[in-house]
Write a structure and sequence with these properties.
single chain; alpha+beta; 4 helices
């Protein structure tokens, strides 16, 4: 007697086994890189629009592998992909988004040596908003980011960028004061 075979299961993003199967793949690594870049590009574009709206200089960006810092006047936003479990695969990783009050990416200029004759006064950046996002996907087309675990609603990369820009706008308006917001 031959036992009945189980029909193949359809992949479902709510199913941890389906997600882990895809998120451990090489395709997922390429998709993750693309989606992190999409969030970064959305944040830079949003920061540029904010700069124009508030009459500020264009934002300073400091990209590096797996992260970017965007300085907009007295505030900044940083995005970083934190790999999970020592693997390059997206499974277990997080996208960390932080909005800061203070200078992260100082404007370019003359080289400043590590040791200077007189101490330079700088204000240490302070975290204003922070969100760690976990990816979920069973295919490249259904990639989502979850702010409070996989049980929470997922966001597209464009929605995550918009959330970061909204937090940046709030921090900028708070730093500039009510007179700058009214103009």
């Amino acid at each position: 007697m031959i036992g009945s075979a189980q029909p193949p299961r359809a992949l479902d993003w709510r199913d941890a086994e389906s997600q882990h199967a895809f998120l451990r793949s090489q395709r997922a690594k390429a998709t993750c890189t693309r989606e992190v870049q999409r969030v970064a590009e959305g944040v830079v574009a949003g920061a540029t629009r904010l700069a124009q709206a508030h009459g500020l200089a264009i934002p300073t960006t400091k990209p590096s592998p797996d992260r970017i810092m965007v300085q907009l006047g007295p505030v900044a936003v940083s995005l970083a992909w934190l790999k999970g479990g020592g693997s390059d695969a997206p499974v277990g990783g997080e996208l960390l988004a932080i909005v800061w009050k203070g200078a992260l990416a100082a404007r370019g200029g003359a080289f400043t040596p590590e040791r200077v004759a007189a101490p330079v006064r700088t204000i240490a950046p302070v975290t204003v908003w922070e969100e760690a996002l976990t990816p979920s996907a069973t295919t490249p087309e259904d990639w989502h980011w979850h702010a409070h675990g996989l049980e929470s609603a997922g966001h597209t990369s464009d929605e995550v960028a918009a959330r970061c820009v909204a937090a940046l706008r709030s921090a900028l308006e708070s730093a500039l004061g009510p007179a700058a917001v009214a103009s």
